[in-house]
Specification:
The protein has 236 residues and is an alpha/beta fold. The protein has two domains: 66 residues, no CATH class; 153 residues, Metalloproteases ("zincins"), catalytic domain (Zincin-like), CATH 3.30.2010. The strands form three sheets. It has a four-stranded mixed β-sheet. It has a four-stranded mixed β-sheet with strand order 5-6-8-7, covered by helices on one side. Strands 9-11-10 form a three-stranded mixed β-sheet, with helices on one face. The radius of gyration is 20 Å and the shape is globular.
Length: 236
């Protein structure tokens, strides 16, 4: 839920509030701005008082994020995409009829009747990436689930703006389609993380032990994923 925080100096800062069963307040700066995780029963007035006490940290992090923000991705011939950590150059050609994207080596070729219709180009390429993501993720999920000794859970694609994956008690795993851009090791880490929740629905020491049993280098992968998240979220 979107809210507006009035800081002591008069500045208004929008933030996304997510209520969860937790004891503490969590804050992070994402591509969408300030995201706050708060306990379910914490009064809103008390929450905003606590947020205002962190005004210096919030404004500093927002300015730092803005200073390092990547340019907005534009859909044009020669645009550089990523697929499984490798560059994929978008090639757009004028044609009498539209066609679906087709990969040829390190290029993704798309024929369209209107090369200036960026919305249509974006839609076709994103659908192609999502199809690639579903196929790739399903294979990795099956392999890692077997390694953990678990039956294959249900797989769904996610379009979340702040989470790479999730797992619920119905054994449903959701993976952000944007991960298809990342190096395979990072995709494997996210899948291992969500699979571990089939055993432990928390982030306890037992949970991380389960993650380590199928993906020992999870700490390094977690840091690498954080460092490239901004790049991965440029699309969509």
């Amino acid at each position: 839920m979107q809210h507006m925080l009035a800081l002591p100096g008069g500045e208004q800062i929008p933030y996304q509030l997510i209520r969860r069963a937790r004891r503490t307040i969590g804050m992070k700066i994402t591509s969408d701005g300030l995201v706050v995780h708060a306990p379910l029963r914490l009064r809103h007035a008390e929450l905003e008082t606590l947020l205002c006490s962190k005004a210096a940290w919030i404004t500093s992090k927002l300015k730092s994020r803005q200073a390092t923000a990547l340019p907005v991705f534009t859909w044009h011939d020669g645009a550089e995409l990523q697929l499984l950590g490798q560059p994929l150059t978008l090639r757009i050609t004028q044609a009498a009829r539209n066609s679906n994207p087709k990969r040829e080596g390190s290029e993704l070729r798309l024929a369209t009747s209107n090369i200036d219709d960026h919305a249509q180009i974006a839609r076709k390429v994103l659908l192609w990436l999502q199809k690639e993501a579903r196929t790739d993720f399903a294979k990795r999920l099956a392999i890692l689930a077997a390694k953990l000794g678990e039956a294959m859970p249900a797989l769904f694609l996610s379009n979340a703006r702040t989470r790479w994956g999730s797992c619920n008690s119905r054994r449903e795993i959701r993976l952000n389609w944007r991960l298809i851009q990342a190096h395979p090791a990072l995709i494997n880490y996210v899948i291992a993380h969500e699979l571990a929740h089939l055993r432990e629905m928390n982030h306890s020491a037992r949970f991380w032990a389960v993650v380590a049993s199928i993906y020992p280098d999870y700490r390094q992968a977690e840091q690498l994923l954080k460092s490239c998240s901004q790049q991965l979220y440029r699309l969509g």
